[in-house]
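One thing: mind reviewing this one?
=====
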Amino acid sequence: MIESQRHSYHLVDPSPWPISGSLGALATTVGGVMYMHSFQGGATLLGLGLVFLLYTMFVWWRDVLRESTLEGHHTKVVQLGLRYGFLLFIVSEVMFFFALFWASSHSSLAPMVEIGGIWPPKGIGVLDPREIPFLNTLILLSSGASVTWAHHAILAGKEKRAVYALVATVLLALVFTGFQGMEYYQAPFTISDSIYGSTFFLATGFHGFHVIIGTLFLIICGIRQYIGHLTKEHHVGFEAVAWCGIL
């Protein structure tokens, strides 16, 4: 940290990554619309936008890790602000999934005449909840236990145990993702099959997307734990991923 700084806050240096991320997102959006409407060059623009966006994410997070771990800018006050910010993000996630569950509950408790007045709608074959759904629930609970183990190991200063726990969590997440892909492949309905298919694939699809992103974050946390970046006083990034995964 700069010696002349007399406060606990992090005044971020000027960075090109916000504008580059915005341009990447713009190119990705425009390219995606062009591709879906079969315009020439849409696929190329979409691919370039995604590459630019991913590169921006990589170098931006690289700078954040450098500022927090090597330069010491993430003081206790800064870490507290990061925790508050991520808690607000989790609240938004809860409300997002609440909306999806609300749509499913509304349609199932009071099925409309357009779907036959019954739930599941007439002609829809459903998955057996005692098979893959039940197994994936157990895997999720086990991954929650292993990531909690990793958190306690970090707090206790046991680096190797934390790495083992993170490896176990990542493996469980990969198994969960594989089973969900198998479930989608075997599903007797599609996203276009009435409100049942729409709510099922939206809710489980977004949850699976969160699992994939969380798995990538946990892999990075595992690498950082292995090389000694995470300590009992400095592991806000891991806490954020753990909170999101458990909730």
Notes: The helical segments are 17-36, 42-70, 76-109, 132-155, 159-186, 194-226, 236-246. The longest helix spans residues 76-109. The CA atoms of residues 186 and 197 lie 13 Å apart.
